[in-house]
Amino acid sequence: MSSLTEAQRTEFARLLKRRYRELWADVQRELGEAQPYAELAGEAHDLEDEGTADVLVDLNLADIHRDIAEMRDVDAALHRILDRSYGLCTDCGGEIPLARLRAYPTAKRCQPCQRRYEQTHLRTSGPTL
Ligand SMILES: [Zn+2]
């Protein structure tokens, strides 16, 4: 159980939702520049729709890919806030320091576990999208 207070949980939820909206605005702008895909942006208009990221993930445009990957991280963090696992490391179950959460609100691992994860995963398989 994370030791975050209800106020802190609310604060992070607000921050994450704002980030999600920013990313979505970026994606819509990028889609607007990539004409053939502009229609998809209209179809996936609802911010609260969980399927949004899935609709756009096949577009294969690097910027959009990166934004959507972050949107998924933000979305996952919001779910962790709801199920009260936010602030706990998904690998070791320890508390993620508040300073780290403030710097990386989507952090799902403590720093030692994140380092270990990056050493074992990212170098060989590239970013997971
Ligand atoms: Zn850990």
Outline the structure in words.
- The structure is a single chain.
- By secondary structure, the chain is mainly alpha-helical.
- The protein has a single domain (6-125), classed as Up-down Bundle (Four Helix Bundle (Hemerythrin (Met), subunit A)), CATH 1.20.120.910.
- 63% of the residues lie in helices and 0% in strands.
- The chain has six helices and no strands.
- It has helices spanning 6-33, 38-43, 52-56, 62-82, 98-103, 111-125.
- α1 packs antiparallel against α4 (62-82).
- The structure holds zinc ion.
- Zinc ion is lined by residues 89, 91-92, 94, 109-110, 113.
- The figure for the number of domains is 1
Mean pLDDT: 83
* Overall CATH class: Mainly Alpha
Q: Write down how many β-strands occur, each being a DSSP E stretch of 2 or more residues.
A: 0
Cα separation of the termini: 28 Å
CATH topology: Four Helix Bundle (Hemerythrin (Met), subunit A)
Shape: flat
* Low-confidence segments: none
Helix content: 55-70%
Q: Per CATH, which architecture?
A: Up-down Bundle
CATH superfamily: DksA, coiled-coil domain
Which class do the helix and strand fractions yield?
A: mainly alpha
Number of helices: 6
Strand content: under 5%
Q: List each distinct ligand once.
A: zinc ion
Query: What is the string of helix and strand elements?
Result: HHHHHH
Radius of gyration over all CA atoms, rounded: 16 Å
Tell me about the largest β-sheet: none
The oligomeric status of these chains comes to single chain
SSE order and pairing:
Elements: H1 6-33, H2 38-43, H3 52-56, H4 62-82, H5 98-103, H6 111-125
Helix pairs in contact: 1-4
The chain binds zinc ion.
